[in-house]
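Deliverable D4.2, example record:
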Amino acid sequence: MASRDFTDPVEGFLGVYGRRKDELLGPDKLSAPPVFEGERRFIEFADRDYDVDRHWAFRIKPEECALIVVDLQEDFVNPSNPMCVPEAYRQIPRVKKLIEACRSVGVPVIYTAHNIASDCCADFYEFWEPIAAGAIKEGTAGADVYHEIYPRTGDRVIRVKHAYDSFAGTDLDYVLRDRDVKTVIICGTLTNFCCESTARTAYFLNYHVVFGSDVNASDNALAHEATIRTMRRGFARVLDHQTIIDILANGDRLHDEARRERQTKRAGAAVARGDLAAGRA
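Output generated by the structure prediction step:
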């Protein structure tokens, strides 16, 4: 199935679901003024909402954070290996900078390394031919953390990871809770597989999630962007690596500004509703 053009969110929606314009619900059936009236406006509203940052959601506090470096391994990063993600390779300097910044303010750095063996492969051999051929095989050099960001002595590495999700069947949750971590910062590859799966489970386990927009890499721009938009709308604060570094070093002014702006908008909306109610009376 070919990728669709989502320049027009309504046309994109109709194409994906195989619907006609006359099937969209009108304002008489679907309405939530002043946000939208009718399904066309609903689709446009939802499309815009995926691009709204929720920086008001929680404050990033260095003493409560941990950086999770997801699956930046030789087989996924090294250009000479069969499952290399070129963008992950290019992002290594940014990841290194983020790792160093976290260490400088006492934020623990935790690595994960996805590895597969014949007795714990699930359907990976069916979906990924390079894995069936030996990529990220348990105990091999290709399954180890990429050499340019190799863990320091004492860093925790989650090596018993046999699924996309860094929490599934691992001790990651125990490690985080033992350190009183409340916020996880996620970088790595692939954005839309292991990184997204890890972020979702972290959210489900009641961690705050910070998702790096330019330190998570995939092999497809559309897939990456879909994850970023989903994270932004309902799972995480999405920030570039430099902004994360600045917040860790200088405080979360972005959160403070977003909270003030949101409170001002809510107050204005409350006044508008009161005026509307008075007019109807």
